[in-house]
Amino acid sequence: MICISVTPASRTLAPADLLNASRHGDLIELCLDHFINEPNPGALLRTVDKPILVSCRSPQQGGAWKGTEQQRVQLLREAIVAEPEYVELDLEIAGSIPRYGRTKRVISYTTPNRALPRVDEVFERCQKADADVVKFTSLTEDLDQAWPLLAAVAQPRDLPIVGLGIGKAGLTFSLLGRKYSSPWIYAALEKGMEAFPAQPTIWQLREDYRTGEIGNKTHFLGIVGRGIGENIAARVLNTAFEEMGRPIRCLPLLPGDLRRFPMMLEKLGINGIVVAPDWSDDLTELSEHGDELVRRSGRVDTLMKASSGRKAVCTTFDAIRMTGEQVLGSTDWSGRGAVLVLGDSLMAQGAAWWFSSQGAAVSLASMSDNQAAGAAKVAGVRHIPWNSIYDTRIDTVVLADHGMPCGMGSKELNPAVIRERQTIVDLTSGLEESPYAEESRLRGARYLDPTTVFVNQLQIQFRTLTGRDLPPGAFQKGLASD
Fold this sequence. Notes:
By secondary structure, the chain is of the alpha/beta class. The protein has three domains: about 1-190, Aldolase class I (TIM Barrel, Alpha-Beta Barrel), CATH 3.20.20.70; about 225-315 and about 455-480, Rossmann fold (3-Layer(aba) Sandwich), CATH 3.40.50; about 330-450, 3-Layer(aba) Sandwich (Rossmann fold), CATH 3.40.50. The protein is about 35% helix and about 20% strand. It is built from 17 helices and 20 strands. It has an eight-stranded parallel beta sheet. A six-stranded mixed beta sheet has the order 10-9-11-13-14-12. Strands 17-16-15-18-19-20 form a six-stranded parallel beta sheet, sandwiched between helices. Helix 6 (about 145-155) packs parallel to helix 7, helix 12 (about 315-330) crosses helix 16 and helix 13 (about 345-360) crosses helix 14. The radius of gyration is 26 Å and the shape is elongated. The model has no long low-confidence stretch (mean pLDDT about 90).
């Protein structure tokens, strides 16, 4: 089941919120702590015919209650008299509110600012507080913090457990909770109506991550990312797996301690990972083997389990080559003319090495001449001083360092380096266009759009992991509602 949290502040508008939630959820959580004036729980419960879970959380439990603790307890007692399907009672007050009628008791334990501690001990206390369901809520900013919460839900126990992750990895926990048969997972009706920060919406769960298709036989493909690239990749790949009839769905992953991450992947049964362009952190230590470009660029964008350990692959430059062929109409564009790589990161070194391996005459420069000289030496290309880049004949400019600032300041790259008929490869901003896109168009340069690179790269990643091409129309169908 999906439980939609409703957080109305107005008694007048609350019935409309409940009605909207009833059209999309299996269970509705009515959060009484957000009301400006004291609500009438009995009247609200009669608004819809879907089962309702009533809660009223204090600020210590991550709620918005502004009254006294006595008033909160009294409001919950009044709500129970109206006999909702469930009432949520935090462990601290559960003993002061007796069971009443047919209402089931969800005894909750919340740590909104830290990971979940002492799961077994807390579970036993909740059980003794006459629980029908035990609920754990904790901070889940990455997979490390989500792990105790996940372990609590996945382990068979005498009472059912539900959980809610607060933070960026809360979505990950929700999808895994679905696989491990948690009685319900939580969702907001829409953005701006979340009960907790970063709570996923019902649309995100259903459309991006296909929660209705996730069960205990589902296998997950991990997606590491931080934004729109992760969401789009999930929608497209989930559409592809559905068309192929494969019980595989995408699971967003935010690594914490990389030393623990492989163990977590193993326990979750995740054999493959796609890394979205908006992720720039180094993941090379996750693999026992990597291709030449991984070693040269420090970029892992595909990770798969092999017989001899995890293998890392960098598909970024194959995607760039494909995009260039589409834009320029030439199959050998990457090996012709003079290429200037701007940056001194591992990615800059990898880009310089790759273009050189294609046959281009490559130079490398960065704002730090010393660091650029070292990077050029490692890549086996020519170094030119930073103050000479505007006087050098260039056919292709590679903006290689993530976050490279565009502007006229002393610590910025002056866009005057971009000229008419040049080809611009932009690696500075992941999936979204950077300021260099508009500068390229204004100056008559040919800009390799990151969105097109992303589309090509996702196709290569899918083929690398599955040995098959993305089904025709996967992008259009996956993004049809955008």
